[in-house]
Amino acid sequence: MEKDKQTLKRTMTSRHIMMMALGGAIGAGLFKGSSTAIDVAGPSVIIAYLIGGIILLFIMQGLAEMAVRNSNARTFRDLVQSVLGNYAAYFLDWIYWKMWVLNIAAEAVVAAIFLQYWLPDCPIWALALGISLLVTVVNLLSVKIFAETEYWLALIKIAVIVIFIILGLLLLFFTFGNHSAVGLSNLTEHGGFFPHGPSGLITAMLVVIYSYGGTEIIGVTLAETKNPEKVVPKAVRSTLTRIVAFYLLPFFIIVSLIPWNQVNSVPESPFVMVFKMVGVPGADHIMNAVILLAIISSMNSGLYGSSRILYTQAMDGRVPKMFSKLSKKKVPVYAILMCTSFLYVGVLISLFAGSQTFTYLMGSLGYTVLFIWLIIGFAHLKSRKNQTEMPSYYVKWFPYTTWFAILSLIAILIGVILTTSIVITCITAAIYLLITAAYVWKGRRHQ
């Protein structure tokens, strides 16, 4: 009875998981990070997102195959530990947890920046605090309520991105009223398609990888998913096509409609700028509201992912047992509250750093997504050794797709180290060393 009481319920369906992966990936990276990516890469940002989308596809296919083969897995750790060993599983668990808790802190600040569009006199830290409290309450409700909330929030932002794409294409190619078709001249004017050369493209990859990061949250939902061996591959297939479409097309429209060197000169999102161009009364306010909902939705996914990792760590006795305690609604309350505390750390940082908080946190998060994808890639490579029978879902072009993803990620990592602020690189390295030191110390203590 006690064991049953402490088990997560499998109440999440295919539509919940698909929307959650979209919710995790279509957030601040798209709506706020888009300005940064365009600023460093210019129109070539389209190629950066295409490369990132292909890498993501290959990594996610490997993740889906491992999930199908190991239907009893609860999170990434279970998929990786049996293949790469204890250290890789421990490292992945903690950098993934770190990624999400820092991400929700970063996104709380971004949400506050968009709220300031209407409340210019209200400080960022106060707005971030209000949003943090709202997300905490939603996550403390039942998993089904959380999943439904996330589903509808994700659906709203997807609907608006579709409207954005349709309106953007109309502005680009059609003349109506006082508006003349813009065409594609902005792609090659203002310094050409590669205004900053290859280095601009490489620098943008950090934002690109950060933006796509969150899709792999599918790997954390395994314990609360009905029939994961069927649902996960389906969710991977449908989610990836949507993510690539929802990134590539909007970026193509933005850099075609607005000269790339003007995008970062205004505080508002490029999405709001395009809606203003349409000339619909209040369009910029509607878009701002949707972006706000999108970021809250992404925070929702992040708090879910980080709390479930902490819960499974507690179930396995790796962190205090209190984090495995569930409420009557089968929600890991203490794990959620622990992860939520980082939201308020973000609020404190924003008290001093203001709107720059997002830029500082995004750099470290980009590194973390790179390492998470690399570990999943290597785990998939090794998981095929000594396999005589293929599961119902498997990667058909193995090992070429996986090797392409791994080598691309290593190349991006080297490029990012050479082009990113040394402060961000050193802080990230220090966090990774701390996680490694904790693993070594824990191993010695148990000898």
From TrEMBL:
It is found in: Cell membrane. It is a multi-pass membrane protein. Pfam families: AA_permease. Residues 16-423 form the Amino acid permease/ SLC12A domain. The keyword Transmembrane helix applies. InterPro entries: AA-permease/SLC12A_dom (IPR004841), Amino_acid_permease_CS (IPR004840). The chain crosses the membrane at residues 46-68, 100-118, 124-142, 154-176, 201-223, 244-263, 286-311, 331-352, 358-381, 393-416, 422-441. Keywords: Amino-acid transport, Membrane, Transmembrane, Transmembrane helix, Transport. PANTHER family: GABA PERMEASE, GAMMA-AMINOBUTYRIC ACID PERMEASE. This is Amino acid permease. It comes from Bacillus atrophaeus (strain 1942). The lineage of its organism: Bacteria, Bacillati, Bacillota, Bacilli, Bacillales.
